């Protein structure tokens, strides 16, 4: 195929993908950026959930659960989330036909602090991000649009390939003196080049949640069996007491800074507590303790660092997707890239409008065929 023809074909492909998937990706990207801001926003909205020991001894999980049950007697307790000594404990509650919720408890006084403000908003944002809040059909639309990111990147790179391809400035420097359509092209092409790697990582990891075949292939390459899909909320009976297991956990993991504990046992009868320390590499790097629910005896220990490489890779997919794998700088880059995603849909659409307008002006300025014949006679 001749280069000029290939360029026209790729331009049409880039344009067609843009008008079909660009707006969806803009929405998915923007909501993903909002989700990246969830933790600091919720922390700001809920100052009452930051507590201080002030010389008080923390109560035990059984007391926390009793307080939560008294506040929400129609709900069943599903688990306990501990976020360190200076944060309220979250008791996860569920009821048939209702969205699960988490009630905050002061770990020292046992006082009910209520539910966290802002969580309903971010739950809706997450649904829009995952499936446009319209269920399985939306999930397929998001997945197909995410797959088209690779088409955008490949065709976009070819279309803007500079003559001095080895020069970084030819790729990365923006011409701030550009006007009109040239200015919008600078925004579209140069900013897109700046964010190319974050978008590649986000798309490659995002497809893991969109398509079973893709997820199974990634899990297979990593040597990780694909877990069975979760059914309804776990209806296993809650253990009589969590206190013995919690006391053992505090003794066995004194450097833990956050932990998550179920209120029912696994198939082997053990109670699992997953936790992280200050040295955990990212927010999905969970160490695990399995404890006897009666006497707190440690049945097994599974440090994240000792997991097979494939399992650690799969556990890292969400931190890679959100940027948290790279710490605070990674989060900043990922959130910025996500919030800027609508820029490409809007700038591409506006360039198309300007192109159509310029073409119409050229046709209007061109002499009519009769006029041209009269001039040449």
UniProtKB/TrEMBL annotation:
Record carries keyword Cell membrane: no
Alphabetical keyword list: Membrane, Oxidoreductase, Transmembrane, Transmembrane helix
Transmembrane segments: 12-37, 141-161, 182-209, 332-353
Gene Ontology molecular function, alphabetical: sulfite reductase (NADPH) activity
Assigned EC number: 1.8.1.2
Superkingdom assignment: Bacteria
Name of the molecule in the record: Sulfite reductase (NADPH) flavoprotein alpha-component
Species per Swiss-Prot/TrEMBL record: Dokdonella fugitiva
